[in-house]
Amino acid sequence: MEAKQTFVWPEGQRCAVSLTYDDALPVHHKMVAPLLTAKRFTGTFNISAHRGFTENTGAWKHVASLGHELGNHTLFHPCRRDPDRPKGSWVPHYDLCDYSVQRWTDEMRVANCLLNQIDGQSERTFGNTCCHTSIGRGDHEKDLSELIDRMFVAGRGPLNNEIVRPASLSYPALGHFNGDRKSFVDIQQDIERAGDMNGWIIFMIHGVGKGTHKGFIDTDEHKQLIDYLEANSSRIWTASMVRVAKHLRSAGYETTPNKAIADDA
Ligand SMILES: [Zn+2]
Fold it and tell me: Is this structure's pTM higher than 0.90?
């Protein structure tokens, strides 16, 4: 595909923003989804099907009915438990180092099936757990890009603070930013940089407000962010990951060869 000099987002905006909220927290369906809907935005809510989901599937069905994406955040929230990694959000007994291709694929297939029963959708994105991008260990460690590409429209890759460039991207390993513990001003600066690049910026957020998760963005900072996105909606497109990825794919943008393998930093 020939590189486009000026990429035009759906309504002529300068950039796209995707807000992804992880771990199926109550604050997401109680406060965040209605707030985004009130501004006519869609977000991505990454669901780990075993926790925060099974207790309240009706709430998530309502979130999906508002047009938001329910992203696949696995069934059991496995993360890598490598000895040299700092201790993260590990769930005992679910270690990505122990996962084979078959086990990973089986788990994601069941998670997709569960989510399909809630939202009726057959296309969605993958929100990686603990931002980890591989399974297995040692010589058998395998990057997930190829597997994600088979099952999903797109997926988050490394947490690398990289703005996605439409002309040079990898759909199964999209770079992203952390939104937890960030001020609105810091996030705004990153979004403005995305605007300068005609790019797509993806944020990973857990809780919104103190007490909602150990990683969270302050409620007021989050509200300032949403108000800013609304005030600037003529130049910033705020939409779920699946919507933005499908828009780019329909515009002819494909994974570029040199971006095909994620950097498991
Ligand atoms: Zn998570």
Answer: yes
